[in-house]
Every structure is written in structure tokens, then in C-alpha cells.
Write a sequence for this structure.
């Protein structure tokens, strides 16, 4: 079942529901998560699955939280041909919620940039 077929999540804002369930994109520079630089974990805002470690976050200059790698098994991929181009979209592997797109212009060691919608994530700082 895709997120758009599921019952809307009551805990999500309208913007987060639009991104996660309808593949919308938040405006660049609008997420407070762009500025998070403390140790912690980024979770799917809908189901709470662990998606990214802060160790893989970097400032891509794009206006969206960006990561060079995801937690093993946390995301699934599909082809997105909207906007007249082919892009690789990724979703939360647990709930199917749209997170963003991955591009081959990130830093080492992967060379990838997971460009994520901030409203699709929830950050929890490490307690250590």
C-alpha cells in the first residue's frame, strides 16, 4: 500500500502530508533541519523509521537537508519522470513516504546527494 492510499497521519502538518503522501516539495531554505549540525538521527516524520545519521549530513548549498548515505535498508527507490526529466526518487522503506531525490553529485565516500524534504524528517539529537 502506498502512503497516498493510507489513512492520513493525524500527527503530520498539511505540508508534511503533501510531501510524504502526494510527492510535493517544500520550498528551498524553508527547513530548520538545514542548520542542524549536532550529532543525532533523522527519522521518517510519518512512521518514525530511522533513515539517516547526522554523520552523513552535509551542506549541499541547495536549500534542502542533504546526506551522502542512508541507513542500510531504510529507503527504496523509483524512477520519477515528472518535470520533463528522469530522476531517482527515494521513499521510506517502512511506510513508503516520499522523502526526496538522490543525485550523483555528493561528497566522498559515496558521491551521492540524498536531497531530502525537511518536513519529511524528524531529528532527535544524541543523548550521549
Amino acid at each position: 500500500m502506498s502512503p497516498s492510499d493510507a489513512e492520513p497521519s493525524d500527527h503530520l502538518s498539511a505540508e508534511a502530508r503533501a510531501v510524504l503522501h502526494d510527492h510535493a516539495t517544500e520550498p528551498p531554505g524553508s527547513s530548520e533541519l538545514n542548520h542542524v549540525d549536532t550529532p543525532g538521527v533523522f527519522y521518517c516524520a510519518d512512521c518514525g523509521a530511522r533513515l539517516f545519521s547526522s554523520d552523513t549530513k552535509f551542506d549541499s548549498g541547495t536549500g534542502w537537508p542533504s546526506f551522502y548515505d542512508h541507513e542500510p535498508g531504510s529507503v527504496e527507490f523509483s524512477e520519477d519522470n515528472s518535470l520533463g526529466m528522469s530522476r531517482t526518487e527515494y521513499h521510506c522503506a517502512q511506510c513508503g513516504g516520499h522523502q526526496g531525490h538522490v543525485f550523483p553529485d555528493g561528497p566522498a565516500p559515496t558521491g551521492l546527494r540524498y536531497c531530502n524534504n525537511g518536513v519529511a524528517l524528524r531529528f532527535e539529537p544524541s543523548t550521549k
Q: What stands out?
A: Residues 26 and 117 are 6 Å apart (CA to CA). Strands lie at 40-44, 50-53, 57-58, 66-67, 75-80, 87-92, 98-103, 113-116, 121-125. Helices lie at 14-22. The first strand starts at residue 40 and ends at 44.
